[in-house]
UniProtKB/TrEMBL annotation:
InterPro entries: ACOT8-like_C, Acyl-CoA_hotdog, HotDog_dom_sf, Sec_Metab_Biosynth-Assoc, TesB_ACOT8-like_N
SUPFAM superfamilies, per database record: Thioesterase/thiol ester dehydrase-isomerase
Protein name: Acyl-CoA thioesterase
Native species: Variovorax ginsengisoli
Ranges where the Acyl-CoA thioesterase-like N-terminal HotDog domain occurs: 28-112
Gene3D superfamilies reported for this sequence: Acyl-CoA thioesterase, double hotdog domain
Lineage per the UniProt record: Bacteria, Pseudomonadati, Pseudomonadota, Betaproteobacteria, Burkholderiales
Length: 276
């Protein structure tokens, strides 16, 4: 069976240097202008915890901080369980690459919380917004040259698509769309992590102006367990993203992800820098 391109991008080798030390390589299939797609990087950080031999439970929270540009090529990951309780586990993850002098250079850091879930009272207070079925929504055309990762996804914008005219007349920052892997792949925590970062910068939509922008830090909260993700399978995910404040070179970006059946799968918040 041919390995899915996303799984190739997530491939890690567990080295014998120390427990929790992994090596990997950036993927040209998920390249984004000057570096890897941030969603894939976040998924790789999570993957190091999911493959750790001491893992307890499943992820409930992931925060990724993009400290420096990631160069094309090899990288090292160190995942460390800093505290294990009866039902929760707290992790730190660090990605490094060799600098010009050969010394390791930190590019990305992360914290992860995993937990053993139990059956309790549950309620979704953030229902999925009404939308036409995916088949009735036009598929977005391929992204700009040099942005390979966009081609790895099928995206069907319902509202707030990338502006067709960049004339500075934007009026809102909300996007809603259906999305899934272009080559069918069953949804899991790594894929959900990447999807939580699939929305283009809100400042582009709000201003209808292209300006340099990039994520500084993103936190994703997982509300579904593995069985609920398995039920989604290769189906579509509904995504919604909007900003709340643009101020002095930074803005926030909040997102929610639902299954076609309306189950809230994950929410995310990120802080993004932008330039005039």
């Amino acid at each position: 069976m041919t390995k899915h391109v996303f799984d190739k991008a997530l491939a890690l080798a567990h080295s014998d240097i120390r427990v929790g030390h992994f090596t990997g390589m950036t993927s040209p299939d998920y390249w984004n202008m000057v570096g890897p797609f941030g969603g894939t990087t976040a998924a790789v950080m999570l993957q190091s915890v999911l493959q750790h031999p001491d893992l307890l439970g499943a992820p409930i929270a992931l925060t990724v901080n993009y400290a420096a540009a990631i160069e094309a090529g090899n990288f090292d990951l160190q995942a460390t369980a800093v505290r294990t309780n009866r039902s929760t586990q707290h992790w730190t993850v660090q990605m490094t690459q060799a600098g010009a002098d050969g010394a390791p250079r930190v590019t990305t850091t992360a914290t992860v919380v995993t937990a053993v879930r139990r059956d309790t009272w549950s309620q979704n207070d953030t229902p999925m917004p009404p939308a036409s079925p995916p088949a009735e929504v036009a598929r977005m055309e391929a992204g700009p040259r040099g942005v390979a990762w966009v081609g790895q996804y099928e995206m069907r914008p319902i509202h707030g698509a990338v502006p067709s005219v960049w004339d500075g007349t934007g009026t809102h920052s909300e996007t809603r769309l259906w999305m899934r892997d272009a080559v069918p792949r069953a949804l899991d925590f790594a894929a959900l992590t990447a999807m939580s970062d699939m929305f283009f910068p809100r400042v582009w939509l709000r201003r209808a102006t292209v300006v340099p922008a990039g994520t500084v830090s993103i936190t994703t909260y997982f509300h579904a367990d593995a069985a609920q993700l398995c039920a989604v399978g290769t189906g579509y995910v509904m995504g919604r993203a909007s900003a709340q404040q643009f101020c002095n070179g930074f803005f926030d970006q909040a997102a929610q992800l639902w299954s076609e059946a309306g189950a809230l799968l994950a929410t995310s918040n990120q802080i993004v820098y932008f330039k005039e």
